[in-house]
Each structure stands twice: as structure tokens, then as C-alpha cells.
User: Fold this.
Amino acid sequence: MSLSAARSILFVCMGNICRSPMAEAMFRHQATLRGVLDEFTIDSAGTGGWHAGSPPDDRMQRTAQRHGIPMKCRARKVRNPDFTTFDLILCMDEENHANLLKMGAPPDRLRLMLDFHPHEQCTEVPDPYYGEHDGFQEVFDLLETSCDRLLDELLPESP
Assistant:
């Protein structure tokens, strides 16, 4: 399947409380602003399940709220059916990419989130969980740019 045909997207990080729910919320927000939200199925999950059922990290939620982006998801662990349900699975880093391959994810559906970021030096979305607040803003900024570029690639060009 070509990237432009992808209409169901799963964002994945380790625990699904910081990076991947922010990516889900950001993509949902930007797709809404472009008037194309109804063209996509969007979700997020973690390769670990220890936060299952929890809301996003408070620090990530506060960062999103400052920018007017609601985060309404609950953490969940990646499930085997996700590998056939979603056209595109976007990992926040190489470790989660490797974990998904070990879990049986089809390599042709996996990409790194920052494959859609214009700066070649940026290859992974850093995990802000054990850091200070500025790490959450950095994640927000990286995902804002990456989701915008991802939408550019997924949507057909305007006439």
C-alpha cells in the first residue's frame, strides 16, 4: 500500500501516556483544522501495558492544553489485531519499532514518526517522562511539525 492510501493510523510509544497520545491528539487536531478528520481512523497505543486505562501524563496534557489541543484518550497496549487494522503504524523511536517487529508487526506498515520531520538530525521523539517540563514542549513541537508533514503526504494534492 502506498503511503497516500493510508487512512488508519496508529501512533506508538512505550507506555502510551506521553508521546503517542500527543501524536494522536495533534494529528486529530490538524486533520480537523484541514476539514479531513472523517477521512482517517486514528488511535495510539504502547508497547508496554503498565499504564493501560490511564489518561495521558498530566505534564503532556498541560502542554497540549496551552496550545488548545484536547487529549481525550486512555492508554492501552498494542494488540495483534492492530497489525491488520491499521494501514500505518508510526513509532516514536527505534526501540518501539524493534519491539513491534518482535511482536509480529508487518515491517511494511511501520515507520518512525520523525521520518516526517524536515530535520535529518531528528530521528526519534525523545521520551519526556523522566525529564523536566521543557521536554514535553520539545515533544509537542516535534509532533506538530511531523503531523503537519504527514498530513501533506497522506492527502491528495489540491487541484
Remarks:
- Residues 20-152 form a domain with the Rossmann fold fold (CATH 3.40.50.2300).
- The radius of gyration is 14 Å.
- The longest helix spans residues 133-154.
- The chain has one domain: 20-152.
